[in-house]
Amino acid sequence: MEITNLFDNIEETRSTINQKYPVAEIAFLVISSFICGYNNWHSITRFGDANLDWVRKFFPYANGIPTRHNIARIIRLIKPESLNELLIN
């Protein structure tokens, strides 16, 4: 199993209308950033911008890296149980 498959099971409470950034992409970006020592929304955005070619090896990021405000908003809308299950697996 590829690690990216684990991100397919993340549940969120966003409406399906106008979703510019898939939740799996955002969760992967945030977790990768945390592992690399980036621990706030602004630095996560900088990490994503600086490593866009690398993160695109795992997910398409068709719309690029979102702003720090969008990252924070999307993360807040993830169901905690599904994120917990992802981290355990």
Automatic annotation (TrEMBL):
Family annotation (InterPro entries): Transposase_11-like, YbfD_N
Record organism: Thorsellia kenyensis
Protein name, as recorded: Transposase family protein
Residues covered by the H repeat-associated protein N-terminal domain: 6-88
